[in-house]
Amino acid sequence: MNETLLDIRGLKTHFHTFGGLVKAVDGVSFDVKRGEVVGLVGESGGGKSVIGFSILRLIDPPGRIEAGEIVFDGEDLIRKTEDELRAVRGGEIAMVFQDPMTSLNPVYTIGRQMDEMLKLHTDLDEPARRARCIRMLEDVGISEAESRLDAYPHQFSGGMRQRVVIAIALLAGSRLIIADEPTTALDVTVQSQILKLMRRQISERGAAMILVTHDLAVVSEMADRVVVLYCGKVVERGRTEDVIAHPAHPYTRGLLDSIPRITDRQHRLRQIPGTVPDIRKLGKGCSFRERCFRAQPLCAEQAPKLAPVRHSLDAACHFPLEESEA
């Protein structure tokens, strides 16, 4: 059996707006192996969520997938018809959306929305479906699960709604879960519980997960490999322990430096200078050059290509950090 469950090759997703062409995802490539968690990290606007929507072909006009391949279990999803994709969405690939308020239908009960997922993607009868829904709500930490099935989304707190969204994604036994900021609305205690649940689920089923987040602490706990994105491009990728301990790209170094540390009480928190540039006006050089402490004239003239640096790390940088510097 092929270990690779998902293989994204040269994916380009662009938005044709009145203000200009937005290359939200511009030639991104990475793979996800069975039983593995891959973290997509970076600042807002880097293209993380758009990659998730592109995998499920949920890009609406004025956006469209311009080029690339999204190969899931040997089949290119870009070539599938809408009817074929309906079997994939929710059944084979599930997505935990970032905003639980817009993920749940306010006029249907939680139980009905969970049951609909099982009706579409399993052959279980009604009592078995209800039993599975109750068990999954209990797994994600919702008390009195049976009575909660008859409640509406507005009767749940924001954190509980997020747990329901996660439960729906896990219900049908999907082989790939795309989790877009799955713990944003949760407190630290529940966040840890949910992350352990999701990790256990994918381990037991031999499934895989793409974890979209800006939280490097969550990535270090959950992900086997990390893909760092900036302005729609991969700037670094590799094993989590290598990226966290010895990053090669100055942008990754900047993200790590911005995390508060209990041992650095005497120093001001460091931050990456400037802001993310307008993605419509990037020019021909490195998109990070204006904020980079290692930038040189070459960076303004030529965009770096993603290339092996050391260990498991690939980085798109003309002047990557040495291991001792990182």
What structural keywords apply?
326 residues, ATP-binding, alpha/beta, globular, 4-stranded antiparallel β-sheet, single chain, 33% helix, 12 strands, 8-stranded mixed β-sheet, Oligopep_ABC_C, Rossmann fold, cell membrane
Please, could you describe this protein's structure?
- This is Peptide/nickel transport system ATP-binding protein.
- It comes from Microvirga guangxiensis.
- It holds the Pfam family oligo_HPY.
- This protein has 326 residues and is of the alpha/beta class.
- It has helices spanning 48-55, 82-88, 100-103, 110-121, 126-139, 145-148, 158-171, 188-205, 216-222, 240-245, 250-257, 297-301, and strands spanning 4-17, 20-33, 37-41, 63-72, 75-76, 93-96, 176-180, 208-212, 225-230, 233-239, 307-310, 313-315.
- The strands form two sheets. Strands 6-7-8-3-9-10-12-11 form an eight-stranded mixed sheet, with helices on both faces. Strands 2-1-4-5 form a four-stranded antiparallel sheet, covered by helices on one side.
- It is globular and about 65 Å long.
- The chain starts with a strand and ends in an 11-residue tail after the last strand.
Number of helices: 12
Q: Give the distance, in angstroms, between the N- and C-terminal Cα atoms.
A: 37 Å
Structural class: alpha/beta
What is the strand tally?
12
Q: For the largest beta sheet, what order do the strands appear in spatially?
A: 6-7-8-3-9-10-12-11
Low-confidence stretches: none
Indicate the radius of gyration in whole angstroms: 21 Å
Mean pLDDT over the residues: 89
Number of domains: 2
CATH hierarchy, class of the largest domain = Alpha Beta
Major beta-sheet overview: 8 strands, mixed
Instruction: Encode the helix/strand succession as letters.
Output: EEEHEEHEHHHHHEHEHEEHHHEE
Q: Helix coverage percent of residues?
A: 25-40%
CATH homology superfamily of the largest domain: P-loop containing nucleotide triphosphate hydrolases
**Strand fraction:** 15-25%
**Shape summary:** globular
Q: In CATH terms, what is the fold-level topology of the largest domain? A: Rossmann fold
